[in-house]
Amino acid sequence: MAKRDYYEVLDVQKNASKDDIKKAYRKLAVQYHPDKNPGNKEAEEKFKEATEAYEILGDDQKKAAYDQFGFAGVEGMAGQGDFSQTFRGFEDIFGDFSGIFDTFFGGGGRRRSSSGGVRQGANLRYDIEIPFKDAVFGTKVEIQYTKNDSCSACNGSGAADGSGKKICPVCQGSGQVRHSQGFFSVASTCHNCRGEGYIIEQPCRDCGGGGTQRKRLKVMVTVPAGVENGKRVVIQRHGDAGPGGGPPGDLYVYIRIKPHEFFERQDLDLYCAVPISITQATLGSEIHVSTLDGKKLKVKIPAGTPNGKLLRIRDEGVPSGGRRGSFWIKLMVQIPEKLSRRGRELLEEYSRIEGENEVPKPIPLSKIADQ
Question: Is residue 118 pLDDT above 90, yes or no?
């Protein structure tokens, strides 16, 4: 499905102010947040779409590039490009809206695991483009990308060697503080520990206490046979490392497929067009047709074959799930633009022998559709 314009996603005009863009995103984020819509894939996709749009339009530099060049101008800035930038998880962008998410979801836009407040790292996105043939039969592609990896100096703890963490004295390790507002008690992120529940007494010098460092990595992506354009391959635990030693997120590799010069695909079926001569179509013949994987197939052309006739060869299409589609050959009768003198004489003789239909009757549309 084609990507929607970012302004359309947030339902704002191009001249919208930064505050208007933020308010529009806040409204969509509250409506479609995964915590509010558990198991709702459609809501999750809308949330991702809105987050990506805000990441571009909420940044002056990225917005200017998008306004001037469209999606091409922001490739790699919001998980779009063919390269290593992140499709940062839903959580990181919520710093601006922590208050409202505290109210709706019980504290902080960031998710914690059940193991005592350790957060999972962000998921990343990487786009690749592969040849048509590789998409049909499968391939392996090595990619390089940049991620937040666990700091080697402190093993992701964020604390300098020999030091440790202590429980936050303000929130007592919960990461939240509660305030009474009339009849309601509202939770908000603890300002002292920023929702972590602990304080690092001596931060690691290499990572500044964050527990992560930017690193360039390589990974081999296995593209399955029969993959469709726009599908993704998930490589688990290859996303950003979680802060404070939390587990890494996943890497989502989205696949674009280059068109082929001679072949096209519909579901598991492959199609190609092959030229034949007038005599082959009229008298019948045998030809050899190359398949996508280089095999030569002997194909019989029936006598009286009309232009555009489709011939089906089973089990020579796209493989997927232990089965394989069909290979369809469209026969295109070629009318010669130039004839030799002898060829012209023979056609004129054929015309005299068989006669010409000087008063042709219309052909039923049903017969044309069948061809």
Answer: no
